[in-house]
């Protein structure tokens, strides 16, 4: 059966693939060294030599944005993958096992969900530091409860179906039931949830970087590029606007893709 995507889904997929390509190959495509001062005019305008202008030190913004894609997309993708892997595993386990295990996991993760994500991130990073591994683990930890809730809600309904009850009657183990009976029937909604959670992580990472608690120099993601060039806002410098536009394009592309996937079910929430 051939999968047909709507025009909006194709547009979203194109933006997502372009974002991945820029994250992987962006530094090789940079016209200048991202850390080199190449112009004496700080907050320079867009020109043929500098298509996106220059930053507060006279560095090429196109090269800086291409470099920042590696950290924005890479950190967000890794954190989302970790969060979804843990959340899906715990949600499947709780739904299939049930009983006090389900209740204990649900109450614990509900308690974490009640804490605002940005506040929790600020507390964890302020206490543990803002290295790249800490950023990834912090954001993964924050979004595990949301993925758990979606997975458990889907899995509880599927676990009550006749084909799952038949598998239990045959004596199949819990691992078989989770992976072979329940999981294949949740792929669509979970793929949608992955995309939405990726957007949440990108926005949280950008917020932390703008506050100075995200990606630290000499590395830079798109949020930190906005922060370090915010002084150029009064000059209308493209160095402030372009990283924000990059964040917007990426998040819009992911939303277009997940909102128009065939047979999707709306997922969301933290």
Automatic annotation (TrEMBL):
<keyword id="KW-0812">Transmembrane</keyword>
<feature type="domain" description="ABC transmembrane type-1">
    <location>
        <begin position="69"/>
        <end position="258"/>
    </location>
</feature>
<feature type="transmembrane region" description="Helical">
    <location>
        <begin position="194"/>
        <end position="215"/>
    </location>
</feature>
<feature type="transmembrane region" description="Helical">
    <location>
        <begin position="235"/>
        <end position="258"/>
    </location>
</feature>
<dbReference type="InterPro" id="IPR000515">
    <property type="entry name" value="MetI-like"/>
</dbReference>
<keyword id="KW-1003">Cell membrane</keyword>
<comment type="similarity">
    <text>Belongs to the binding-protein-dependent transport system permease family.</text>
</comment>
<keyword id="KW-0472">Membrane</keyword>
<dbReference type="InterPro" id="IPR035906">
    <property type="entry name" value="MetI-like_sf"/>
</dbReference>
<keyword id="KW-1133">Transmembrane helix</keyword>
<protein>
    <submittedName>
        <fullName>DNA-directed RNA polymerase subunit alpha</fullName>
    </submittedName>
</protein>
<dbReference type="Pfam" id="PF00528">
    <property type="entry name" value="BPD_transp_1"/>
</dbReference>
<keyword id="KW-0240">DNA-directed RNA polymerase</keyword>
<dbReference type="InterPro" id="IPR050366">
    <property type="entry name" value="BP-dependent_transpt_permease"/>
</dbReference>
<keyword id="KW-0804">Transcription</keyword>
<feature type="transmembrane region" description="Helical">
    <location>
        <begin position="71"/>
        <end position="100"/>
    </location>
</feature>
<keyword id="KW-0813">Transport</keyword>
<feature type="transmembrane region" description="Helical">
    <location>
        <begin position="120"/>
        <end position="144"/>
    </location>
</feature>
<dbReference type="GO" id="GO:0000428">
    <property type="term" value="C:DNA-directed RNA polymerase complex"/>
</dbReference>
């Amino acid at each position: 059966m051939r999968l047909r995507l709507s025009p909006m889904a194709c547009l979203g997929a194109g933006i997502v693939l372009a974002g991945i390509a820029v994250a992987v190959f962006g530094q090789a495509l940079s016209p200048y060294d991202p850390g080199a001062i190449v112009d004496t005019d700080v907050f320079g305008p867009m020109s043929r030599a500098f298509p996106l202008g220059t930053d507060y030190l006279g560095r090429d913004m196109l090269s800086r944005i291409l470099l920042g894609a590696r950290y924005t997309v890479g950190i967000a993708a890794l954190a989302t993958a970790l969060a979804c892997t843990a959340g899906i595993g715990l949600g499947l386990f709780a739904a299939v096992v049930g009983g006090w295990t389900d209740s204990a996991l649900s109450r614990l993760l509900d308690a974490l969900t009640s804490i605002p994500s940005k506040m929790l991130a600020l507390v964890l990073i302020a206490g543990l530091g803002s290295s790249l591994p800490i950023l990834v683990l912090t954001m993964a930890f924050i979004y595990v409860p949301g993925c758990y809730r979606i997975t458990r809600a889907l899995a509880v309904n599927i676990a009550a179906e006749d084909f799952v009850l038949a598998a239990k009657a045959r004596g199949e183990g819990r691992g078989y039931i989770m992976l072979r009976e329940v999981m294949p029937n949740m792929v669509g909604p979970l793929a949608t949830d992955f995309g939405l959670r990726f957007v949440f992580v990108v926005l949280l990472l950008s917020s932390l970087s703008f506050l100075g608690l995200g990606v630290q120099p000499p590395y830079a993601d798109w949020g930190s590029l906005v922060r370090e060039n915010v002084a150029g806002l009064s000059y209308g410098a493209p160095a402030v606007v372009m990283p924000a536009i990059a964040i917007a394009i990426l998040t819009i592309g992911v939303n277009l893709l997940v909102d128009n996937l065939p047979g999707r079910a709306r997922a969301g929430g933290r």
